[in-house]
Amino acid sequence: KLRGKYHISSGINAEYGGLLLCIGLASAKVTKLTDDNRDLVLTGEWFIKAYAPWCGACKSIAASWTQLGEWSLDKEYNIAEIDITAGHNFANELLVTKIPSLFHVKNGVWTSYSGARNSDAWKKFLTGNGSEGLEPMPWYRKPGSQPMRILSYMMGFALKVQEMHERLTKQYNVPTPLSVGILILLPVIALITLFLMVVYFVHIVLGKPKPASEIGKQQARKRTLSTQPAEPADNSPAGEGTKKDQ
Questions:
Q1: Which of 17, 108, 129, 181 has the CA that lies 20 to 30 A from 144?
Q2: Quick check: 71 and 122 in contact, CB under 8 A?
Q3: Is the full-model pTM beyond 0.90?
Q4: 45 and 113 Cβ atoms separated by less than 8 Å
Q5: SS3 call for 14
Q6: How many helices (H) and strands (E) in the chain?
Q7: In what order do the strands lie in the sheet with 45-51?
Q8: Contact (Cβ atoms closer than 8 angstroms) between residue 65 and residue 126
Q9: pLDDT tens for residues 107-133?
Q10: Are 143 and 133 in contact (CB under 8 A)?
C-alpha cells in the first residue's frame, strides 16, 4: 500500500511538474520588455500589452494573451508585454492612462489598439493589417522620442521622491511637514553645491577673474595712452645739431 501510494504520488508530482513546465514554456512565447531589450521593437511587427500585476482586467486577459503568443510562434508577429509598475523608463514613455493598454508597432510606427479584448479579435487585427486603419502616434508622443524621454525621467524622479517620502514617514516616523521640507531642501542644496563646483572648476581652468574696479582702471589707462599725441620724430642728421650749437 505504501509503495502504491508512493507511485501514485510520484505520478501526480510528475504530471504537476510537466504542467508547470508547459506553463513556463507558454509564458516564454510572450517577450518581457524592459529598458534593456526595448530596442527589439525598433524592427519587425510587435503587439504589446502594458499591464500591472494587481489589475483585475489585466488578469482576465492574461490567458488569451499567452494563447496569442503561442499562435504567433511560426509567424512574423511578436507578442510582448511590459509591467508598468516595475519602474522601467520605457513603461513611463508609453504614457499609459488605463490598464491594460495595447500598442501595435510596425517598423517604428506606433498605434494604440482599442478593439475587442480576446485572442480571435487580436489575430484578425494582426492578419488583416488592422493597424493601417489607425492613426499613428505623432513623433513627440512615440516612446523613444526626446519629449517622452524627458517626461519619463521626470516621472521617475517624482516616483523616487514619493518613495523617499513614504520611507521617511513610515519607516523612520518623520512628521509629514518635516518630510516635505526635507524633500524640498535637498534639491535646492544639490543645485547650490553643483553651482559652486562649476564655479570652482572655471576658476581652476580660466583663472580667478579680476575685480571690476581693476578692469575699469586698465581700460581707462588704455584710453589715455591712445589719446596722447605722438612725439615728432627727429629726422635731422646727427652732426647738424652739433654745428649749430657751435
A1: 129
A2: no
A3: no
A4: no
A5: helix
A6: 9, 5
A7: 31-32, 77-83, 45-51, 101-106, 109-113
A8: no
A9: 889 999 999 999 999 999 999 988 888
A10: no
